[in-house]
């Protein structure tokens, strides 16, 4: 389900005003992506306590790879979680390479991927 940006922003602001106890409980972020030589897509699902779910689909209207689309998905999801005031977040993905790069057990030498990696690490710190 795709949610218009303003509706999502309003919901996240409303969610951020919820009591702190709910934000301290563990939330889950599920990210998925697709890519082609001309465009890509991202699906982000943020799940919180009490059955709270925020799901969005984003179109990446630029040529991308699976790894770039994975980073884009994570960045969108992490920004949503931060905007909502989430303090505890578990991230689920099917990209082992990107997960290993973020954890530091693998590295990248490609300039753009290094920028994505830096952005994600900044968001999770």
UniProtKB/TrEMBL annotation:
CDD domains reported for this sequence: RNase_HI_like
RNase H type-1 domain span: 35-124
GO function term, MF aspect, one: nucleic acid binding
Cleaved signal peptide residues: none
Top-level taxon: Eukaryota
Pfam family, one: RVT_3
PANTHER family, per database record: RIBONUCLEASE H (PTHR48475:SF2)
Name of the protein described by the UniProt record: RNase H type-1 domain-containing protein
Organism: Sesamum radiatum
Taxonomic lineage: Eukaryota, Viridiplantae, Streptophyta, Embryophyta, Tracheophyta
